[in-house]
Amino acid sequence: MTRAGRILIRGGTLLSADGVTGRKDVLVVDGLIADVGEPGTLWDESALVHDATARFICPGFVNAHTHGHANLMKGVADAWTLEASLTNGPWLGGKRDPATIYLSTLIGAIDMLSKGCTACFDLVYEFPQPTREGFLAVAAAYHDAGMRAVLAPMVADKSLFQSIPGLTDALPPQLREEVGKMVLAPSDSTMDAIRQIVAARGELPSGVTLAIAPTIPHHCSEQFLLNCCDLAVCHDLPIHMHVAESRLQAVVARRVYGVSAVAYLADLGILSPKFTAAHGVWLDEADLDLLAEHGCSIAHIPASNFRLGSGIAHVRPMLERGINVGLATDGANSSDALSMLQAMRLASYGARAIASAREDWLSAREVLRLATKNGARILGHEAGRIALGLAADLVFLDAEHVDFVPANDPVNQLVTCADSAAVTDVMAGGVFRVRNRKLVSIDLADLGERVSGSLADLTVTMSGVKALASQLEPHVVAFAQHLSREPLGFDRLVRPKAEASS
Questions:
Q1: CB–CB of 157/15 below 8 Å?
Q2: What does the H/E/C string look like for 83-150?
Q3: Other C-beta atoms lying within 10 Å of the C-beta of residue 451
């Protein structure tokens, strides 16, 4: 990877969540922003000069929730609900060697970087349990591409069919027998695997840190959750979980625990300022109060929520309570583009789909804050702003691109107009990873061939698992739709009047 040096960025127009701060020169030294001044006022004879007079510059986008293992499965899903996606999970993630894991992660890093994302929180999945070798392969891919990342082994000790009461019994007998064989690694074995990864923290490359992700509350036994929490506390690690993503998850939590998933996690002592709830579509007022009380964050993932038909998360009440809300794409199997620009637009538009006063809509500046500063806070990074001493993670956009012509309000246009075609350069850690719309941090020469080879191998090895999932899927979706009709007292879906219910 190219090392950071001294770069003087001349004449770019800075954009931030606070608005347009005008043309500035920015001096970058050893990966950090060393100075910001009026054009022509900064000089460093040892610095390389980068002309940005025709560029808007904003902080690098931060993807607060994604899954690197899903990148080889981009575009495989069409009309999938979350439960359909989880049913297909065994072949989507599959059992993979480190080389395939590396390649899948690298594809996502390239995708994100090319669209202005410089850091992410990746919930890393391996079947049947995480491995040190696989985890280090993920870390190497982000490092080679030039992204910073927080990596969390995504783990559970219950399968989908063990976690939802009545689901297995609703299957035909022959399928019931098959899912009885679909078990995850034993809890103790999985915890040992996580401990091995924690013990290898010193082998992680610079810019890559560790977290823990017990995937969904009811997919984990109580003792397993407590073990994960104890390990996180012992090693000062963040915890990141999918919480109330679908209506079914909200219903199942109340069936299993007698309370919401958030109330259950609070009772277990798992909520803290280092806890992030991903999605949070089906959170009620009491849930938000608990998350705010414990200083938790929420990863808002509108593209995935729309894509899977999960509903529309209501962000304004989260912000009103002081909850830190970051923005995310999810994995490429449920949010294929991995585009933070797309995520910003959907977050903006989704807020308008909720019946409320327009004052409750998310402004463009708020959305940009979710995609930068707030996301960085979820990662535990002091970043997401163009300020002295912070990492030089910067996105350069073509001010002459049609998305910004005329430039009436560049911050608003960044959210409502711009797409990846306007991104010209991306700097992460003071090093250009994208120059003139081309990735320069790694060699892409044989990438397509390597991807094709990996997919061909996975198609063969996962054919039986995929065939079983296709048989299971309609039964799982039908059961989920039936169970999801149980009343919750609030809704996050737009329904025709005749069907509207709580």
A1: no
A2: HHHHHCHHHHHCCCCHHHHHHHHHHHHHHHHHCCEEEEEEEECCCCCCCHHHHHHHHHHHHHHCCEEE
A3: 17
Closest CA to 250 of 228, 268, 222, 277: 277
Question: How many whole angstroms separate alpha carbon 113 and alpha carbon 181?
Answer: 40
Between the alpha carbon of residue 210 and those of residues 150, 313, 444, the distances in Å are 6, 27, 28
Instruction: In whole angstroms, give the CA distance from residue 13 to residue 399.
Output: 9
In the sheet with 275-279, reading across from the earlier edge strand, the strands are 239-243, 275-279, 297-300, 324-327
Q: Which residues, other chains included, contact 368 with Cβ-Cβ below 8 Å and sequence gap of 6+?
A: 15, 16, 17, 58, 344, 411, 414, 415
Would you give the end-to-end CA distance of the chain in angstroms?
Answer: 53
Query: What is the predicted pLDDT for the residue at 445?
Result: 84
How far is Cα 259 from Cα 348, in angstroms, rounded to an integer?
A: 31
Tell me the angle at which helices 132-145 and 187-199 cross, rounded to the nearest 10 degrees.
40
Position 386 pLDDT exceeds 90: yes
| Both structure tokens of 422 | 């306007």
Would you state the structure tokens that stand for residue 255, as one six-digit string? Answer: 């069936």
CA distance 305 to 87: 17
The set of residues, in sequence order, having a beta carbon less than 8 Å from that of 446 and lying 6+ positions away, is none
Q: What is the pTM of this model?
A: 0.96
Summarised one tens digit per residue, pLDDT across range 11-61 is: 999 999 988 889 999 999 999 999 999 999 998 889 999 999 999 999 999
> Quick one: pLDDT at residue 499?
60
Q: What is the CA radius of gyration of the chain?
A: 22
Q: Which amino acid is at 15?
A: L
- pLDDT tens for 313-371 read 999 999 999 999 999 999 998 988 999 999 999 999 999 999 888 999 999 999 999 99
- d(CA 3, CA 47) in angstroms, rounded, equals 14
